[in-house]
Design brief:
1 helix; 60% strand; Glycolipid-binding family protein; mainly beta
Length: 204
Amino acid sequence: MPRGRYSLHDPHDHTPLAEEHFHCAVGPSGWRYVSQLTTPSGDHHGSVDLTLDELGRPIRLELHAAAWQVRGAALDGVTWVRTDPTGTEATEGNVRAHAFTGTSPAFLVATARLLRLTPSASATRVRLVALTDPVLAPRTVDQSWSLLKREAHATDNGPLTVDEYQVTDLDMGEQHAVHIAGDVVLAAPGIELEDLESPPSAFT
């Protein structure tokens, strides 16, 4: 069960945004990721609880940020309920999309798991519902993912397989690289892995 800490920053000016303390685990029915976020000053900033089924689909998502809350799942595309800080208003949404995304590294692992790309495959288009800070407002985004290469690196715990993806925002045309080992993001725009107490889990 990998457990560790990511630092999140603005990918453009590198302003520190939060630290995400996480643990995750692969099980017989899928994968679960749980994290708590703190601001650079140490205040509570939010939380992530994401569960995928064995095919990589989000069967349960609960996000908290700035007192806003979103609960969602894969249902007729993806469906969610977003609740305001006072708890008096709740709005439902549904989009013909494949999964969710957001600032948490969990969503990069989830999308990679959903697509299951191989280095020889062509780029795959995916539609996601982005839930971004500070108020978790939903926005539909189209991306293209391709697996550029898969390399094994020697470690004290045996070889570590690292996948390098190229992710393209089809609306903006921007491209960036994402490096993932098992169920841990090693590097991505705005994300740095600061601490990892145990090796990443390998998806079967």
